[in-house]
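Lab notes, practical 5.
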Amino acid sequence: MLISLIKRTVRRAVLFYCYNLSGDRYNPQKMPSNSQLQEKQDFILFAQHGWADTCHDIAQLARALAMENTIVYTPDLGLVNTWLEIEPLINKVENIATEAISKHPDLPLRIVSHSMGGLIWLEVLNRHPEWLPRVHSLVLVASPVGGSDLGRLFDPFRWFPLMARDLGKNRRSIAEAIASKIPTLTVVGDIGNNTDGTVPVGCSQFANATFVCLDGIRHATLKNHPQVAAAVRQFWENPIVAQSPTDPASQLVAKLRSLDLTETDNQNFEKAKLIHNGSDDTKLWVWTNALQVMHVFVSAGDRCIYSAYASWQNKDKLAMAIKELSQNPK
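Output from the prediction step:
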């Protein structure tokens, strides 16, 4: 049985790399010759795991997406390291990608990443705009692009050199700039109240990206779920730079996102007070909790499409913005 499995693996001819905690590379499959590889390879697939994780599960997603001649890299950043600072992890992925691109200069790149892994790749691509013409597509799965609410909760003043500070950083401007140049897909899960249980749905949304929401799938499950693989394959069939919506509700959300508020789930939406009702049934709501933290919500029809709160230091800024938006929402 083992010999049969090895033979099937060799026939599939997928060059699969995984990295252990020390960064050493191993190859779990029998390697074809360099000349054979050069003739058969069609693209390089980078698949990156996220926080408090290793490459094991994201590698399953990579195998499901890889074609017969795909070269796959799934760097293992080390579970403990993902609790520390993000900069060394960015450097490690950057070095691995640089080596791979140099080794295979004629192959296009496809990138799939989960959670923090998506933030790492945003930083890597931001450092290397010269790579963008070679990128076929970028896929972010449950990545807190707008800044993790949990990260900001644990380190609201960004004092501590740990991952919470780095996850709380708003990278939406970086993501939008990249997505304006290469086809980008952002996939989220929603188990209710606009969250996957870890990352709010809105935190993963940004302009120029195709958006897919999968109901009933939790954050950790998304990294190798069959529905995610299906969404990625469908996007790969027709990768596009998406047009940003121009409807009034989306424009209102964009204005609020420019304030760098902390997006969260909408479980407190029912407590909010209506302060503005637009002609297109776009509504603006506010709620202040017992700790005097101000929350703002936007609804379209009967559906809440945006929910966020302002930190104590940004409370006055939000109050001024809400006053202006309610008086002049256009």
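Observations recorded by the TA: Residues 248-327 form one domain. Confidence is low (pLDDT under 50) at residues 1-41.
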